[in-house]
Amino acid sequence: MERKEVLFLVNPFAGGGKAGRVDWQRALASLCADWQVEIARTPDDALTLVTNFCQSGGDLLVVAGGDGTVHTLLPALVHSTTALALCPIGTSNVLARELGYPLGRHALRGCVQAVLAGQGRQIDVGIVLNRPFVLMVSAGLDAHVVRCVPEPLKRSLGVYAFLWTGLQELRRYQPARYRMVLPDKQMEEEAVIVVVANTSRYGWFTTIAPHARIDDGVLDLVWLPAGRGWRRAIWHVFLDVMTGRAGRCPHLRFERAREVRIVAVPAQPAQCDGEPAGETPLSISVLPRALRVIAPSPRAPWRSAV
Predict the structure, then answer these.
(1) Model confidence over 241-286: pLDDT tens digits?
(2) What is the CA radius of gyration of the chain?
(3) Which of 144, 176, 145 is nearest to 159 (CA)?
(4) C-alpha to C-alpha distances, 66 to 30, 56, 61, 91, 95, nearest whole angstrom
(5) Are 60 and 294 within 8 A, CB to CB?
(6) Three-state helix/strand/coil letters over 172-237
(7) Dihedral sign, CA of 57, 83, 63, 296?
């Protein structure tokens, strides 16, 4: 796939800081990729670089980082003519998994191959608190865990930091009463977690919204009611989302809509694409096919993308 101008943007802190120790100029040269390489030391620096690149008509942005890096850059990319490709070296790489990028030691070579021979796509973007997201917004237990994970632990343990912190917080977390308002109905229920998903995957290689499609123009609402024995039920839920059986999980509830408003009593912490995002109430909507991406063609085999 021929490109006139390509920016390869590196988050040096991605992958527990491993990205900052790579000689990217040399690595790309070995793969015959003549791209402009920039190292972004702060999120503000990254957003400024990408905003200028998009506004100047840059053809393709390649992000060497994870979902948090992509989330930071979305305000510059949404509705722009610049396409996004991924070199997935972050903690969870949910978007890369959703699009079919190879991970691990195959990440860089797979990224270059996707740019050269991949497929252009237009995917949906969600909006919450006037900010775009591409994966999901959630409130409740998982957002509480995201807020509690110490950054040094995240850098050293990666996704396992969230699992460890979740185990600690599960014992003391208390569910809330939620009102979930859709254009044609509303539900009110005590719940442990409420997720508004743009992608089928949630984190790592878990699938929480099996019917979600990243380009279908709707959002998928998933929640776990806080019935009697919910702490025991959550282990069943965890097993089902880890093994691709969330759609048959008896403890989960599902709805679909273009707009969702979530109110909780008491107010609950929220997370967006794995980053803290304030508290409820939240009004969430979708921008259909507002982001240009490059997806590998063919997709990476399942074992190479987990």
Answers:
(1) 989 899 999 999 999 999 999 999 999 999 999 888 999 999 999 9
(2) 19
(3) 145
(4) 23, 25, 14, 6, 8
(5) yes
(6) CCCCEEEEEECCCCEEEEEEEEEEEECCCECCCCCECCCCCCCCCCCEEEEEEECCCCHHHHHHHH
(7) negative
Q: Closest Cα to residue 70, out of 81, 59, 83, 58?
A: 83
- Structure confidence by residue, pLDDT tens digits, 203-216: 767 899 999 999 99
The better pLDDT of the pair 92, 139 is held by 139
Residue with tokens 């273009």: 258
Q: Give me the residue label for tokens 């796509």.
A: 121
In the chain, what are the helix, strand and coil shares in percent, each to the nearest 5?
A: 35, 35, 30
Largest CA distance in the chain: 59
Give me the percent of the chain exceeding a pLDDT of 70: 96
